[in-house]
Predict the structure of Quinol:cytochrome c oxidoreductase pentaheme cytochrome subunit.
Amino acid sequence: MNIPFREDSKFCSFFPRSKSFLAIFVAILLSTCSLAWAQDSTAAAGAAPAAAAGGGDAAKGEALFKNNCAQCHAVTDEKVVGPGLKGATTRNSIEWITKWVHNSQAMIASGDPYAVKIYNEYNKAQMTAFPNLSEDDIKGIFAYVDQASAAPAPAAAGAAGAAPAAGAAQTSGPSDLFMIVLVALVVVMLLVLGVLLVIVTILSKAVSGEAADASKGDFMTRFGASLKRVAGDPAIRSATLWIFVLLVVKATLDGAYSVGVQQGYAPKQPISFSHKLHAGEYKIDCNYCHTGVNRGKSAHIPSANICMNCHGVIKKESPEIQKIYTSIENNTPIEWVRVHNLPDLAYFNHSQHVNVAGLECENCHGDIAKMEVIQQRSSLTMGWCIDCHRKTDVNTKDNKYYDKLVQLHASDSKEALKVADIGGLECSKCHY
Ligand code: HEC
Ligand code: HEC
Ligand code: HEC
Ligand code: HEC
Ligand code: HEC
Ligand code: HEC
């Protein structure tokens, strides 16, 4: 009987190739798996710092800071309404600070020299009193302040030092952490691959009758010799090359897809205007300021005159409100930093979505009424628009315009009329 692998020449010409195929196959498999895994684990790792600090006070402090202090204080030494809180715990004891936060006015009235000094320095702007924050809460806030002020400023353009933006700003494209995890994985993969190939080599030797040879010497020398051979093995080299190529391709594609995607963008604004305060606590209607949402393409950013409807009397003495006055006196508009911005090639109309379709702002912008600083929550990519047009039913209620269409549609489909059915996927609807 002629068993192929007994015949040395045939075996040799077949085996090296199959071995390199195997190596390449394993390499591809491993790198795909690990890439998927790497992404998951970066997502997890991204959440980890918060979770790790969850035991301590800083994580709780962060939430407290953002909800109570961020509209007036930065974690850096930058002035907002009040002084930057960086190093506040070195200026005063935590007991002093606790008393101050509970009731700064009482301290000023009692004649505490530092309290009086800083009050005058800030033009007698009154800090809100927080009698319900416990000493632990306040310690937590400053644990967070110390942590955040020690961290390097976020790289995101314009976000540097913007306390509320810190942590919220996401990077587009692969993060540093992602790259570290990737590199670590590649190393692990190469080790695994090395071991696999050692095993393959030993096995193949056993099969080809060199087993007797190889059993001489102890395990370590055999292992060492195999490793040497493995390092010189063309199959390993080509596998390494493949992994490298795949990683480069993956990184390039990721980079290309995230060009211009600004999800998570939350720049610092020239006036620390808070939607949480105005739209959340005081429940001012979005339309009151964004007068275009029901009527036209653009939602509009309010002019300083709209602010003056209230701030002609409310909080006139606040340095932030003074900026509105300065803007009006100098006749220069407030230079708000634009957050959401589609490229010119795409057409988007607010009234079509808000007025006709009856969508809530939250569908696309997230819960603005909870945001101290506006952040772009959706990706605003073409895929995002299309995805919603595929899934969303057209709001046909009380809209005669759609009656005919609904009838026609119902005659050949059981499903509800989707935006896609009325041409919501046609290129020309969104591109001029
Ligand atoms: C409405 C604005 C406002 C809010 C909200 C606010 N502060 Fe202040 N804070 C100020 C102002 C203004 C000063 C400067 C003193 C003054 O004018 O009363 C100040 C001063 C301070 C100081 C002294 C700073 C220094 O340099 O030593 C500390 C500490 C402080 N605030 C902590 C907090 C904490 C903690 C919170 C949140 C729980 C908070 N503040 C919320 C406006 C505010
Ligand atoms: C008192 C006036 C006022 C009210 C009320 C208000 N806004 Fe705004 N909004 C502004 C100002 C001023 C800006 C620009 C500064 C900024 O980005 O914070 C803005 C910015 C925005 C932006 C980002 C614009 C950009 O640059 O891309 C969105 C989105 C937004 N508002 C949505 C809402 C929603 C949703 C509501 C209701 C829940 C609302 N706003 C209520 C004044 C207001
Ligand atoms: C419908 C009334 C209303 C309008 C319009 C309005 N605000 Fe306010 N704003 C308020 C109220 C109420 C407060 C809370 C005052 C307080 O804390 O005592 C406030 C607080 C503020 C503060 C915090 C001030 C501080 O020192 O605590 C800023 C900054 C501010 N508004 C900016 C703006 C800007 C900018 C606009 C225009 C885009 C605007 N507001 C429009 C009602 C309004
Ligand atoms: C279907 C999604 C969607 C809904 C719903 C929506 N927006 Fe927008 N919004 C966008 C997009 C997309 C942009 C960016 C537009 C651009 O750059 O041309 C934007 C931009 C804005 C801006 C910046 C100024 C401008 O018009 O470019 C403001 C302010 C705003 N939206 C407020 C609102 C408010 C207030 C509501 C609710 C009444 C709302 N939006 C509902 C998608 C939406
Ligand atoms: C949250 C869901 C949602 C998102 C996100 C969304 N849309 Fe829409 N869009 C709708 C709905 C619902 C309608 C149907 C409105 C109507 O009845 O005319 C619509 C209609 C349209 C139309 C008119 C289509 C037609 O055939 O008349 C255009 C153009 C459009 N959207 C553009 C965009 C663009 C551009 C984006 C992304 C920047 C976007 N939309 C994101 C829900 C969405
Ligand atoms: C519902 C709205 C919508 C429809 C329908 C739509 N697009 Fe887009 N398209 C967009 C938006 C929004 C962008 C900008 C997205 C961005 O910057 O990531 C875009 C970007 C693009 C770009 C620029 C490349 C890029 O990714 O930035 C091209 C090319 C394009 N679209 C082609 C098409 C073609 C071809 C069709 C028809 C098959 C089509 N689009 C249908 C909304 C739409």
Observations:
- The mean pLDDT is 78.
